[in-house]
Specification:
Elements (H helix, E strand, L loop, with lengths): L4 H8 L10 E5 L3 H10 L6 E5 L2 H8 L6 E5 L5 H7 L10 E5 L6 H9 L4 E4 L7 H5 L4 H8 L12 H11 L8 H8 L3 H8 L7 H17 L6 H7 L5 H12 L11 H9 L8
Parallel strand pairs: 1-2, 1-3, 3-4, 4-5
Helix pairs in contact: 1-9, 3-4, 8-9, 9-10, 11-13
Amino acid sequence: MSATTAPARRARNGGAAAVPAPAIVVHTGRDRVRAMVRAAFPRRRGRLVLARSTDDVGAAFHSELVDAVLVDLGGASSDAWATAELAREFPSAPFFGVLPLRASDAPSLARCAQLDFAGVAVEGVDDGALRDLVAPRSFSARFASALGTPPSALGLVNELQQRTWQCLVAHAGRPVRTEMLAEAVGVTREHLSRSFAEGGAPNLKRVIDFVRVLAAAELAKNPGYDVRDVAAVLGFASSSHLSSTAQRVVGTRPTSLARLRTVDLIERFAKGRSRSRG
């Protein structure tokens, strides 16, 4: 049997490594809005985290990677607006309002604009378009789109390298194993590990760590996160694990990630830090 036959067959049959469904936090106490978001995000299209309070939303941000937040502003309660204010603490996750859009809702729309909300969905009008409004703006989607083409400095030029990179960035910094990537691109783990670094390209294990550090750098720009929070939501074993990974692949401490641009991190990685043992 060739190195590609069995995994390729699994990939063609839908067995490729699944990208985690985006985590959508929904702050609402109304059944109408719950039904709206459940219809927009069935299980395979999104994982809904239903929150009844601002504290619930804050807890979600500190326990997992939040892709987007929907805030039910139909009642314009003080708690709903307290949740809306979290948009300033966590700008990496787009916030969306849900409104019936009555004439009296004009001040609410203006406040959403002041808080830099990504958009507002109108009940009964945007129900069918809600997923199309939210999904492309989610953290994971924007991360994958921005990095969809491997940086030229990494030298990932052949088809296998590029497909692997695209599968990797689709996870947006969440943990991913070599065997998951191998299944996604339709080759064996051994073949992928051996072939990925051909032509002087970086070692696959090091590239996996590098993408996770890129995601950590984006999350570190959130005023509501410290290093421990970033490590936790991206699935690092500890803040020390994140620290050692950042030092190894980009030569900097996690506390410095927030001030570095992606291009800076790519340059640091490409200069002698793109190879690892094994």
